[in-house]
Specification:
Elements lengths: L2 H17 L4 H17 L3 H15 L6 H14 L2 H13 L5 H14 L5 H18 L4 H12 L1 H4 L4 H10 L3 H29 L12 H9 L2 H15 L5 H18 L5 H35 L1 H12 L3 H15 L5 H17 L8 H14 L6 H13 L5 H6 L6 H27 L7 H8 L6 H24 L2 H4 L3
Helix pairs in contact: 1-2, 1-15, 2-3, 2-15, 3-15, 4-14, 4-15, 5-6, 5-12, 6-7, 6-8, 6-11, 7-8, 7-23, 8-23, 8-24, 10-18, 10-22, 11-22, 11-24, 13-14, 15-18, 16-18, 17-22, 18-22, 19-20, 22-24
Amino acid sequence: MSDLAIGLLSFPALLVLIFLRVPIGLAMFTAGFVGLWIVTDGTLVGLSRLKNETYSTFSSYSLSIVPMFLLMGHFATLGGMSQALFRAAEGFLGHRKGGVAMAAIGACAGFGAICGSSLATAATMGRVALPEMRRYGYDGGFSTATLAAGGTLGILIPPSVVLVIYAILTEQNIAKLFLAAFIPGILAALGYILAVRIYVWRNPGLAGTRDPIPMGQRLRQLGAVWPVLVVFLAVVGGIYGGIFTPTEAAAVGALGTGLIALVNGGLTGRTLIESFMVTAKSTAMIFFIVLGAAFYNGFLALTQVPQEMADWVVTQGFAPLTVLIVILVFYLIFGCLMDSLSMILLTIPIFFPVISVLDFGLVDLIAMQHEAALAALASGAEIAGEVRAEVEALIAAGAEIPRELQQAIDIRVTQGMADRIATEQTAIWFGILVLIVVEVGLITPPVGMNLFVLNSMDRATPIVRTYRAVVYFVGTDIVRVAILVAFPAITLFLI
């Protein structure tokens, strides 16, 4: 049997291990180690890789961002930021039909800006918002579905732990990925609010109302969220202002939320130790999955599976959008059965090489040349009249500017430059799309992780009722994915 065949057979074998409830990190490690044993006819290579892979994986400076963001989320909860966000949103929206549910979505979006975990966002906001929704007569299935969907904003709105892992796997810029996620994250929140409106319009008896509160009280509640704004601006503003690296910004965010929690009385010696322990356990789980994925992906690289798949797709002549849609459908299906981080770690090393060789037309070489030429002509530099006229004629005709004319106006825009930009933009666009469809899996039956988290907090509500209500939110997610696939500029224009 060829090495390629062994690599291909390892994937169904890995899925069998996962469905037998073997932990995902251990399953990937086992598949990789056994695969190396078979391919290299011995354990020497596997044991050597175990030593080298462990060091090379965990010596990555970028990975230290993961525990910092997780700790920041715990400190934010202790500091009462989740309650403040919900109260502020409820003050302005709660008196509308379905307004408390809309407030929960808004609070999830705000909390997601300081917490990079979907499950943590769902669980935290569930503790805050579920009692209030019960109080005003909201149906249990609708309440749990709303908060499960809102929780997914935790991994889409920066900072995001999953985006950090994707950036490390694909060697992309973390700051650019965070920036690209902003608009899709806002669209997600607006889409969920629209889903709430549609649901209460079709089921008016399943959502109650509350009396409006005075404007002065609303403003006081809004003013109480200033710590969230300060932390968000410090983290995100520090990154894009060039003050911090993403890793340093995560540490600053954890320190800031910790100080706020201390001032507000939520951070004590006991809760500090608990926060460290929970963060350590979550980080250990994530890092073990990362190690297992690194080991398995090294085995796949040795068997040439990603490269052969990329070559096969290119030789078949499939349309790039067709390949992308098939991959996204795969994520939607398997996202119902696996958690988001495991899906990313397992599939990106296989799918990313395929996507990176396809031309989605994200960068136009001639348009780049014309933009650079227009900037040069408008700069006031001394350019000979005949050169200026010739360049302007080429721009008017929509033609490519030859190298000698580029040199004459002191610009340099080559095909290689355009290809490098296109590769980066494709990687960022694909990463955001994958993040969204994996996020949909968190609220899609039968194994939507967020659904089970919220259902465990409301035992009186059958899970089937949550399934029925969450369909509205999944529908808006599908529409959002279609829009972002059709219009990549929505994701990319900020970068």
